[in-house]
Amino acid sequence: MASRSEDEQTWTIREVAEEFGVTHRTVRHYEELGLITPERRGTTRVYRRRDRTRLGLILRGKRLGFPLDEIRTIIDLYDAPRGRRSQLEYVLGQIDERRADLEQRRRDLDDALTELARFEERCREDLSRIPR
Amino acid sequence: MASRSEDEQTWTIREVAEEFGVTHRTVRHYEELGLITPERRGTTRVYRRRDRTRLGLILRGKRLGFPLDEIRTIIDLYDAPRGRRSQLEYVLGQIDERRADLEQRRRDLDDALTELARFEERCREDLSRIPR
DNA sequence: CTTGACGTTGACGTCAACGTAAAGCAGCAT
DNA sequence: ATGCTGCTTTACGTTGACGTCAACGTCAAG
């Protein structure tokens, strides 16, 4: 039972890779680029909740089409030191830039979706005019 | 005023490139991949409204993180023949797939934005606790 | 008629994001 | 001890999306 701070569930590289639907090579690639930094038990990589969280953020960033180095600056932002006032102000500025970027994407996305809806409408009309 | 079908405004490659903020090499690359097919006046490329429309769609697709060959299938869809019933049904099916993809992206995007908002909130709280 | 300013076609270079093969160690089941 | 399985590093290959020449055509201006 030992109630120490043993929130220490860990995973192997195969486990996280399979869980997130990527290869171990991909996971290691992200480590090479400094996106995740698993500990080592001897020579073996040990992944914790923090690493899985970051991996999730990375993959979502990829689905959104961000390059990996940009993704790194984004998720590093979440872990950045925010002790001093100047640091916090810097972080808040970065947040604003990020939001502007994301909102541009959402506009593009919404435009694409409404166009698609209009196009579907036209197709359905065409279809309704075809007999049989 | 000569009312012929002279909706024939044209542009050169430099013009469209500059207008859309890309290089002529990029425009030619898209042509190599069959994403746009400008006519030729002799050997020179001639761009019309249709090409500009497609270029706009391509670049929006890129901002959304789609690969170029996927973008081609998407915008080709808009120009696909829809004469027969089977063709229309195929197109409608493709539209559904596209929409599912785009909506997944929007979910990711909204998640990212709400997380960002929460994070900003925390930063502002931290900031309010710092004197001076 | 030469000189730019643009246009054209190759062809090779580059960078990101991995894939893939080669070779080795580490534990442990037989 | 031996082999198997899973993890490791090293290193070169691949694909997508262009960049970057080089070498040449063309047409209006001087």
Automatic annotation (TrEMBL), chains A, B:
Keywords: Coiled coil, DNA-binding
Secretion signal span: none
An MF annotation (GO) of this entry: DNA-binding transcription factor activity
HTH merR-type domain boundaries: 10-77
Chain coiled-coil ranges: 92-122
PROSITE patterns the UniProt entry points to: HTH_MERR_2
Gene3D superfamilies: 1.10.1660.10
Pfam families registered for this protein in UniProt: MerR_1
InterPro entries for this protein: DNA-bd_dom_put_sf (IPR009061), MerR-type_HTH_dom (IPR000551), MerR_fam (IPR047057)
SUPFAM superfamilies with a match to the protein in the record: Putative DNA-binding domain
The name this protein goes by in its record: MerR family transcriptional regulator
Species whose genome carries this gene: Knoellia flava
